């Protein structure tokens, strides 16, 4: 969250951030009034405590001097102060609670370099990679959801049977390809000096608040033990929506040393989100699903280094796609399309040629977001209590956090099935993945099983 001091000293900058990020339901004038009233109550409380302490000291002196009447008056005044102070503190605590709730909903101002815009239409394409030397594709390219069924390596129907819509099985070579992608990504990022973590999958509400998933994205998260969202406490557990949550909060309320930074962690986790999806092909296949695998990159850095580190982080995430030789583009996200916590954000979008969507490139197909590389500055650090000590004799300061997906596995799987497919319906395994699949070069599919397999592969 933004600091109270920043709010007090730069209210118009906060107001501008609310407007540029399109944040609704925030009454900044009310926030400022609550903060001012709270400070007045705190100041008045300090005055009352000072007066009560002075009176308490005098009571003993008055009694020792035999001035009983004045001592009784002092005792009476002390009781009045105690009552008044109790009422004042109760009101101050109520206002502070309201102020904290407002602060959780205030956006971080975007970095000055971020393009100003209202929504995704105003995002800026920075560059494309891999389109100068595209492989020859079959005519037409079969969408992954049909090809996956033909090869019997994807099974959304049986996934829905055991868990509901938005869940799926990968099978045989499909499962092996998914495992290979995860191991490949982890290997690439180890080369980039990332330290592996395998975090808990359930995360508590404190951790979800720390990274900004609560309260902004509570409707997208899976709450363990009940889906109705009312109040929450730190005893509540949620299924991990992204490894950003447990990894960032690993150091919550701790002080790191300057020598520890930059600290780079990577973590593979299954992730759980309520992806609403859209009509048509968006609900088919594995583009929008409720459970998906992902390798997450989390960085803890000195504030003065965070924007340079963001550019390096983006390059580290891109390296996965460069080695897979998959065409993609990089988008800089505008103010109106960023979340509350982002100071600057890039999205990496893969090209999947199987569905000719309206937002696809000239070659047809569609763009699939597979990573967001983001600098959160000190926004998460303030919420989670992430600090570092520049020098051992200096006071601790908030560090900066960044993360990126390295990258979302199902959508990479989609791109591989569509971009590396052959006219005979087989799929080439990208060369970089072959060592992770025992040298296998081509996915030829499997024979379906069960009575439902009769007529399989004979699509209309």
Question: How would you summarize this macromolecular structure in one to three sentences?
Answer:
This protein is of the alpha+beta class and 460 residues long. The protein has helices at 4-9, 11-20, 28-64, 68-105, 144-151, 156-163, 173-191, 205-211, 244-248, 306-324, 379-384, 409-419; strands at residues 124-129, 154-155, 169-170, 195-197, 202-204, 223-224, 237-239, 254-257, 263-272, 291-301, 328-332, 344-352, 366-375, 386-389, 397-398, 400-408, 427-428, 442-443.
How would you describe this protein?
This protein folds into two domains: 4-105, Helix Hairpins (Orthogonal Bundle), CATH 1.10.287.40; 120-453, Bira Bifunctional Protein, Domain 2 (BirA Bifunctional Protein, domain 2, 2-Layer Sandwich). Helices cover 38% and strands 19% of the residues. It has helices spanning 4-9, 11-20, 28-64, 68-105, 144-151, 156-163, 173-191, 205-211, 244-248, 306-324, 379-384, 409-419; strands spanning 124-129, 154-155, 169-170, 195-197, 202-204, 223-224, 237-239, 254-257, 263-272, 291-301, 328-332, 344-352, 366-375, 386-389, 397-398, 400-408, 427-428, 442-443. The strands form five sheets. It has an eight-stranded mixed beta sheet with strand order 1-11-12-13-16-10-9-4. Strands 5-7-6 form a three-stranded antiparallel beta sheet. A three-stranded mixed beta sheet has the order 8-14-15. A hairpin with a 7-residue loop joins strand 14 and strand 15 (397-398). Helix 3 (28-64) runs antiparallel to helix 4 (68-105). The two termini are 54 Å apart. Residues 277-281 have low confidence and may be disordered.
């Amino acid at each position: 969250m933004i600091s109270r001091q920043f709010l007090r000293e730069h209210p118009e900058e906060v107001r501008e951030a609310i407007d540029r990020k399109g944040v609704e339901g925030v009454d900044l004038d009310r926030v400022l009034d609550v903060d001012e009233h709270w400070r007045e109550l705190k100041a008045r409380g300090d005055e009352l405590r000072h007066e009560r302490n002075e009176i308490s000291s005098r009571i003993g002196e008055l009694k020792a001097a035999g001035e009983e009447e004045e001592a009784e008056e002092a005792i009476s005044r002390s009781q009045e102060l105690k009552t008044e102070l109790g009422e004042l503190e109760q009101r101050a605590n109520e206002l502070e609670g309201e102020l904290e709730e407002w602060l959780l909903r205030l956006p971080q101002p975007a970095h000055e370099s971020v393009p100003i815009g209202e929504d995704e239409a105003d995002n800026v394409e920075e560059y494309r990679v891999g389109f100068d030397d595209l492989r020859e594709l079959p005519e037409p390219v079969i969408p992954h959801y049909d090809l996956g069924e033909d090869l019997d390596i994807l099974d959304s129907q049986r996934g829905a049977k055991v868990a509901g819509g938005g869940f799926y099985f990968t099978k045989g070579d499909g499962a092996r390809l998914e495992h290979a992608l995860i191991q490949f990504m982890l290997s690439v990022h180890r080369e980039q000096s990332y330290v592996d973590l395998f975090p808990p999958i359930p995360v508590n509400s404190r951790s979800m608040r720390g990274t900004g998933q609560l309260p902004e994205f509570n409707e997208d998260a899976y709450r363990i033990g009940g889906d109705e969202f009312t109040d929450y406490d730190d005893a509540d557990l949620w299924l991990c929506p992204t490894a950003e949550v447990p990894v960032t909060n690993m150091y919550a309320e701790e002080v790191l040393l300057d020598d520890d930074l930059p600290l780079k962690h990577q973590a593979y986790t299954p992730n759980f989100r309520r992806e609403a999806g859209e009509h048509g092909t968006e609900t088919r296949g594995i583009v929008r699903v409720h459970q998906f695998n992902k390798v997450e990159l989390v960085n803890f850095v000195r504030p003065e280094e965070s924007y340079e580190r963001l550019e390096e982080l983006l390059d580290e995430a891109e390296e996965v796609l460069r080695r897979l030789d998959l065409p993609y583009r990089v988008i800089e996200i505008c103010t109106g399309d960023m979340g509350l916590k982002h100071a600057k954000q890039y999205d990496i979008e893969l090209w999947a040629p199987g569905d000719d969507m309206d937002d696809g490139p000239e070659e047809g197909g569609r763009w699939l977001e597979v990573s967001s590389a983001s600098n959160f500055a000190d926004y998460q650090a303030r919420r989670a209590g992430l600090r570092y000590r520049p020098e051992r004799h200096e006071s601790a300061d908030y560090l900066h956090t960044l993360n990126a997906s390295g990258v979302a596995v199902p959508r990479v799987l989609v791109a591989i099935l569509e971009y590396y497919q052959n006219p005979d319906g087989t799929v080439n395994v990208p060369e970089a993945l072959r060592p992770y699949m025992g040298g296998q070069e081509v996915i030829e599919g499997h024979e379906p099983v069960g009575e439902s397999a009769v007529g399989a592969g004979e699509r209309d």
